[in-house]
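Newbie here. two chains, one complex. Structure please?
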Amino acid sequence: MVGNVIGAVVTVVAGIGAALLLYWIFNKFAESLPGVWEDRVKPYLYVLPAFAAIAVFLIYPTVQTIIDSFKNDDSSKFVGWKNFSTLFQSSDFLQTLYNNLLWMIVVPAVSIILGLLIAILADRLSPRSEKTAKTIVFLPMAISAVGAATVWRFMFAANPPGEAQVGLQNAIVTGLGGSPVAWMQQTTLHFNSLLLMVILLWGQVGFSMVLLSAAIKGVPTETLEAARIDGANEVQIFRRVIIPQISGTIITVFVTVLISVMKIFDIVYVMTDGNFNTNVIGVDFVNQLFTNFQNGLASAIVVILLVAVIPIVIYQIRTFKAQEA
Amino acid sequence: MRVRRVPQAVAATAAVALLVTACGSSSSSKGASATSGAAATSAAAAASSSGGAAATSAGTASAGAASGAAPASGAGFVPKLSGKNFGGKKITIWTSLDQPVIDGLSAKLDPEAKAEGINVVWSKVDNINQAIIAKVQANAAPDIATLPQPGIINGLATKGKVTALDSILDIPGLSKSMTAGTLDVSKVNGKVYGLMISMNVKGLVWYPKAAFTAAGYAAPTDLAGLDALTAKIKADGHTPWCVGLESGTATGWPATDWLENLVLKQSGLTVYGNWINHTVKFDSPEITKAATEFQNLTFPSGNTLGGQKSMTSNNFGTAGNPMFDAKPGCYMYMQGSFITGFFPKAVQKALDTQVGVFGLPPATAGGANPVEGGGDTASIYKDSPAAEEVMRLLSATSVGLTAAGNGSSFISPHKDFPLSAYPLKTTQTVAQVAYAATGFGFDASDAMPAAVGSGSFWKEMTNWVSGSENLQSALKNIDSSWPAS
């Protein structure tokens, strides 16, 4: 134990020392260069370690995953496109993709709408109640998704009729004389997936509210006053004056939420583990890799997810640059 | 300009330092474990050489051990000991048994081993399946380990990493003493590589004793009788079954237990064994028949508390508890011997008066009646005369006497084990179910490839029971998920 601690301390000190030494050598090397070359070369030398870290921990695994997606279950031989054709011929996987699509359509849109609504309504409160209201809405952001899902299990819990209902929703249903509903098994119109989305929304609305609220407060009051003088009503002001001025923020929030939704994993994993037709790509990947030991299929799923995320990331970076310019 | 750059440089430095530390610490821990393994090996070698020299006062020591090994009742298997003294040789036993079971076994075994100059050290290891494979590969295996998964023993035995017990233990004597089939669970090419030292029993039907007997119900003697009992309870206006398949990310496993038990009862051990290696398909008539029996017992409206849908949302641990309501929510709950630990505290305190239990009945009354169960199987991973002697001591029927009496979950795999050694009547009944078995089927889903055994088998059973898929396509999906190699 003591040995371990001493070992850890020694490695930390040695590691920091080595890194400092590295930068010191880089610096000396750059300073030894003549005139303008010092300033030309130095930034690249300083960036080099970070770039190396990204190459080792991001680019290398990505390339490896793409290669593995064309290999068999223990990555020992190449199988061509077989993993992808297996996935796209499996009705379960197509349902999984469909579920992901539902998440991508519903969650970002609803979190923008609710965030905007709360931001506008809170804007009209007294400063004190605005702070309180926003704090309450923002609070779930502080809870990890796994924690949130565990809490929500109690919302949706179902016990057989006649037994005490631990779940809040079923306590209400049975209290009103109904019989308990197994919420997580309501597959009609993907109702159970929608219930899972409520959990993510509960956590995400605070995020979009904070950003949108800041954007709304940034709208110059002169433009609002001018609109009022011109006789516009509140709805018109909102649609014609406020929305155009905060559209950049709306897009940013939308894309950020969209990317986090595409990677959705924890809530579904904790609540249903993808059972009852609620499976999503993230959960399917983990189950293929860690339960079924199908490296090939798992890598193929990740590659599909990667291909789907890339255009959105590019779009996000472009809009971000456009806003900065 | 220079000053402003400092914070960035520090941040980058810290990042690099973290990376270096991460790599450094993992390699250093690897080094540490390798050296500790080497140290253990050399220590063991030293001890064994001194053990050979110190085998002098053998006669008296073995006499003492033999008298200690004989159970008070005089019944059961008594191994023939070597009669040597091993001069303080240390034998390490790795196990993942519950601590009370370890305490009980160690209280009985350690003094007997001590009398022969063997110092037994029990070590409770979590994740023992992965740990033993890693240690065997690193040539740093413990002398003896008990594993809950015979598949791993068999895999290591095929690679020659486990010592065969045929010349060490009295196998013919043991096969008379032990529950039918328990010596076969880790048999490779006709040789026995593992000795089961503690067992658990599956396919047990638990019932609320008072209400069950007051209503005039009795344990059935064949599967038709179980159907009849289910129908009778329903006709009396009660709910026959409680079923709970929910288990977090392992949801569905209790359904696989149902299916496994029924396959075993209806089609016997041969089909069961062929099912595990997929020569009998899930889609076959035998497996479909077992699934249909499960369906007939529990799916019809009124047969299961909360109906078919609630089966997949009820947690396996608590699903049986409505049995103990003032007016029982159901009258039967099928689950393994471990489930008593999940019953309400008040029930656990008065288990014998509150709870009754019978084994799932055979297909025909008095016919072949194999039982499904599990168990921890001891094998030698580092052979030495002392390790062999400890295995002989472990093979005695009497080795479990203390563990059975100390309130642990221990059930001896020896069918000549004195039932009176179990303080609880419930445990006696459970043990009797196993001891009367004509064969022993180790949990099939545990023995199947992971993609099926803990993947598609669970998921497809869940889909079928929750009604989102029919039986035929569920079974077909499991078949198609069977790994190709």
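Moderator note: The two ends of chain B are 63 Å apart (CA to CA). The longest strand of chain B covers residues 371-380. Thread marked as resolved.
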